[in-house]
Amino acid sequence: MKQLFTISLLSLLFCSCWHSSESTDSSEDEVVEDSIEAEEDSLILFEEEVVPVSADELFDDFFFSFTTDQRFQMQRVKFPLKCKEGQDELVISREEWKEFNRFTTQEFYSVLYERESDMEIQKDTAVNEVSVDWIYLDDDYVERYNFVRSQDGQWLLLDFGKEETSATPYASFANFYAKFASDSIFQRESIQFPLHVVAEEQSDGDEGGEAHLSPDEWFEFRQEMPMPEGVMTNINYGQPSISQNRKILLVEGMSNGLYVKYKFDRTNGKWRLYEIEN
Fold first, then answer.
1. How far apart are the first and last CA of the chain?
2. SS3 category, 54
3. How does pLDDT run across 6-54, given as a tens digit for each residue?
4. Rounded Cα–Cα distance for residues 235 and 222 (Å)
5. Would you call 90 exposed, middle or buried from its count of C-beta atoms within 10 A (0-12, 13-18, 19+)?
6. Of 5, 9, 90, 107, whose CB neighbour count within 10 A is largest?
7. φ, ψ dihedrals at 132, nearest 5°
8. Cut 0.70: pTM above it
9. pLDDT in tens, 181-218
10. In what order do the strands lie in the sheet with 77-85?
């Protein structure tokens, strides 16, 4: 039987990679303020125009480059970029994209699943269409960005649109999570205590372990946990989104080793967090 971990050790297990990504790059603001032409000249991810095939095999590999290198990003947006909002349609030029761009460097992204087996789709090289939702929890709307793989195998941002959160298949959970993330009293009422926490064995030799947290232990532990607040993303690779009674919120870091699963279910119309696993 695995030895139970203390709160401090659990925090280290879950968050060691998280904290390693928090250094500040003082040049980031300068890059944003430069012209697009200057960015394309100075921010070079690939020395040649020909992008390695490996950058497009998996959407996740492409997405990392797309969100961290502006020169690469500008090559992979189909300009003028179409935007649909209800019956209205507008276009965003290359110059306007600089101000509108949502895909700046992120420390983590989140994905919604219903079953752990569905997570295998992230590794499927046959996936040719992916949408990335920016879910504005406080404002009750979603921006959906549609990516497609072109005939020559390159991922491209094709278009995007806006819709109300209520029109999405995850509306019930998103409405619940908006309050869960912002209201500590509601959060406490929406957790199954003692909360089961599982830390898997780590590649560096840490044995992992399990614990069951009381409400006070949870709120201490929560201070160190990466969870979306205000805005949540959902990357749709084609995983099912039909159940209104279970959700796995996967929080995954951008090349920093972060990988945490928050497991929720709904009983008698009430959502609750019942397990955390990394």
1. 19
2. helix
3. 444 455 455 544 444 444 454 444 444 444 444 444 444 444 445 556 6
4. 24
5. exposed
6. 5
7. -120, 115
8. yes
9. 999 999 999 999 999 999 887 656 667 799 999 999 99
10. 88-92, 77-85, 155-164, 141-149, 129-136, 231-236
